[in-house]
Amino acid sequence: MARYDRLSTLMNRFALEVRPSPAEAAHLFVLQQAGASQPHQLVLAPHPSAPFRPAPDVQVIFSAAVDWGGSDNPLLSALPAQTEQNLEGDADLAALVQLICAEHAARRCGVASVLNRMGEVLIVKMLRRLMEIGVTHAGVLGGLSDRRLARAIVSMHEAPGRAWTSADLADVAGLSVSRFTQLFGQKVGATPAAYLRRWRMALARQDIMQGDRIDAVARRYGYGSSEALNHAMRRETGQAPGAWRRAQAMQP
């Protein structure tokens, strides 16, 4: 059976930006025990309600803000409030973290670009780990953690304009329609149709913001006509596509 790349389409559509930031405004933290010579843990807190506070005997040796490419990114809403990943036993991840810390300390030319790229690799590794252990928080990561559902979700991600039915997606997943629908709701927290609708709208808004023609966007994502997309956007945002684009362009 062919392997499905569960992250690439998401990462390509919603480009991550990782940039060094003071701890009080950061989402990603590298921790080191007091007196230790190497960091021991990563913490990812994508929805901070208060500044991150490590234990008294732990110091933050690197912190970064993570921009997920906009609030429409399904990964952002799917992430737990806080993810901790120990570096002990993962030599590759530990080496990457050490490279990031060294690059940040050296402050050589091109440091922002290097840290952004290495930070993206770090985030991908953390997402992989979350999928491997099985995410309990409902959302796209929960669905992608299940190999059967992942095949259906990736199919929607890669062909959002196709007229997917529950039967089509259940067939891709290798499940009965009833079992597929039940499992999808448990893991993702939405029906397959609702998830597809949100995914299409997220992509449509991206393309509209980039200046694409409304009728072209409508055809690309399965709306059938510009009128149908107009109606869908009014339902989601309260504005027609053109008015929404102008309003977004005026925001700082």
TrEMBL record:
<dbReference type="GO" id="GO:0003700">
    <property type="term" value="F:DNA-binding transcription factor activity"/>
</dbReference>
<keyword id="KW-0238">DNA-binding</keyword>
<dbReference type="InterPro" id="IPR018060">
    <property type="entry name" value="HTH_AraC"/>
</dbReference>
<keyword id="KW-0805">Transcription regulation</keyword>
<dbReference type="Pfam" id="PF12833">
    <property type="entry name" value="HTH_18"/>
</dbReference>
<dbReference type="GO" id="GO:0043565">
    <property type="term" value="F:sequence-specific DNA binding"/>
</dbReference>
<dbReference type="InterPro" id="IPR050204">
    <property type="entry name" value="AraC_XylS_family_regulators"/>
</dbReference>
<protein>
    <submittedName>
        <fullName>Cupin</fullName>
    </submittedName>
</protein>
<dbReference type="InterPro" id="IPR009057">
    <property type="entry name" value="Homeodomain-like_sf"/>
</dbReference>
<dbReference type="InterPro" id="IPR032783">
    <property type="entry name" value="AraC_lig"/>
</dbReference>
<feature type="domain" description="HTH araC/xylS-type">
    <location>
        <begin position="147"/>
        <end position="247"/>
    </location>
</feature>
<dbReference type="Pfam" id="PF12852">
    <property type="entry name" value="Cupin_6"/>
</dbReference>
<keyword id="KW-0804">Transcription</keyword>
